[in-house]
Design a protein that fits this description.
The chain is α/β, with parallel strands linked by helices. About 45% of the residues lie in helices and about 15% in strands. Helix 2 links the parallel strand 2 and strand 3. Helix 1 packs parallel to helix 2, helix 1 crosses helix 9 and helix 4 packs across helix 6.
Amino acid sequence: MKTKQKTIAVINLKGGVGRSTVSTNLAGELAKRAHTTLFDCDAIQATSGSWYALREGSNKSEGLSLQSAMNHQELIEKVSKDKSTFLVLDSEPRLKEIARAMIMLSDLVLIPVAASAAEVWATGDVIQLLEEAKKVRKVEARLVWSRHRANTKLAKEVMAEVQKVLGVGFLKTSLGLRVAYQEALGLGLTGAEMSDKVAREEVNQLVKEVLSIVGNK
């Protein structure tokens, strides 16, 4: 039986919150399960595209393709034609139209946040887009901590406040503040391919949790 295509969007309209870290780790690991396309829609930074080039150059890109989209029309057209089992959409941090299109195209929306109040409140625009989309279709969305320090007082306070105010739940899995993730981006690798045992476990758990939500275990 043919596996139904699953699309995961990683969206935040603020830069520097770990969006591409989440996207590249998901795409790299999902590609080991079934063919995956990573869409890099950030033409200015192109972090995911650069990561893919490094991965391809080291012959680790089997099962993984890269696409780019400059605007929401191009994104919608390319997604409609893509036959991969998994699509991972890495958003552009400034354009709401691309983010809006990603939400409408996705089975799951992930919103990376770092453990500071300022960065959390910056997700408000994405939450607004989610609410608009929910008037048209059911939307699954989760916040995901990046660069997380779980045991700090600030992280605990921010998590409690965010869930109360924004009304979107967190993934159980978070990506900690680890050098391994920065190094992985610069090597075209995933955290699951690094020597850091905790990073490997976090990435593996992230993928398992995402697959359980989208119904493709």
